[in-house]
Predict the structure.
Amino acid sequence: MSVETAHELFVEELKDIYSGEKQAIKAYPRLVKAVRSESLRDAMQAHLAETQAQLERLEQIFELLEERPGGKTCNGMKGLLEEAFEHKDEIDPGSVLDAAMIGALQRVEDYEIAAYGTVVAFAEATGQTEILRLLEATLMEEKQTDEKLSTVAHEVNEAAIAEAEGGQEEEDGGNDKEGKKEGKAKKSRVIRKPAKPLKKATKQSR
Ligand SMILES: [Fe+2]
């Protein structure tokens, strides 16, 4: 379809978002299965349920606009989800894969936040209050999911680093259980900042 008017552009943007949400709903259950962290799995399950409701909101919007969803593929979301599946194929299950998955899922959320931000601004500018209300509700949920994933990332990153260091200690021949525990605790205190440890984990996984 050729886009000529601002309204047509608005509808196309919504179709793009609709396609993205549908792709996410299809991909999420397979991605959840690859994850080991319970907190991450819970966050993903909760967002999957939320996304289903978001899809329904979009269907309501298409009804209000007397338009039909479908007929468009969101290539941005396709690429982002492909990257998530690449992690799943390339990294063994465990904390490092969980950390990689959070990175991929936060990219998805940030992409959605940008997309919903665009249509929210348009609905606001054109005074489509009912549509605006529906879109804003979803935008808020996407932002909350992004924040939730950031919180889970702290826990998962620490586990990923401890996993790597635990492996290293075993390689070094340490078999004193208590000493090992202490060593880990000390190290995890030193590595609270996510930026540095993540770099380290990435290096080691290469
Ligand atoms: Fe989302």
